[in-house]
Amino acid sequence: MSNLPEFITIQNVQKYISNRMVLDIDELVVYQSECVVVHGPNGSGKSTLLKILAGLMTPDSGVATTNGVVRPWRQAIREFRANAVYLHQTPYLFDRSVEDNIAYGLRFRNRSQSVLFSEVQSAMEWAGLSHLAKRNARDLSGGEKQRVALTRARILEPKLLLLDEPTAAMDRKSRKQTFSLIRDLASGGNAVYIATHEAADLYQPDRVIQLDYGKLVV
For 139-166, what is each residue's pLDDT tens digit? Predict the structure, then answer.
């Protein structure tokens, strides 16, 4: 039981894919400002869980509580999509500069050019990307691309950030930088969920969730 405020609670969530149950969650509470590692072997339902929390996938059954109100999934999914960002282990980046990629989401939020520029510069400095601002994002290393994707997500200020194998195929230096950024995101008020095969303690999580054949292992 956490002392942090509850953000989302999901209950009785089941998801079938090709007639196989891949997720069967009795209850999961997502707390604010919490870093959570989701562990489990391939096929255990880690990515499915993250995509459901992001509003990218609809379960076959289940309810969610948001803002203290129990909602059917059709209603809850709107809030999930408005408040969560999901990052795949191979993030999609536009064929543009690093700063243009990071600024992309803000362009839909009616920022003035001066405010947008200031926020993007600050975000790049946070991630150690300032020296790459004019580089084409698609020409970067795997670790640099992931940091661009994290920064693009951070600048949108999501309440829940969902990371699917965020350090896959990174070298040691890039992994260390990414671990640090992820912890900073959680300490800054975001709830961060990380599906990973890495040792959980590398992320210094507040909590570890173990999935086994789609069920939470206590």
Answer: 999 889 999 999 999 998 899 999 999 8
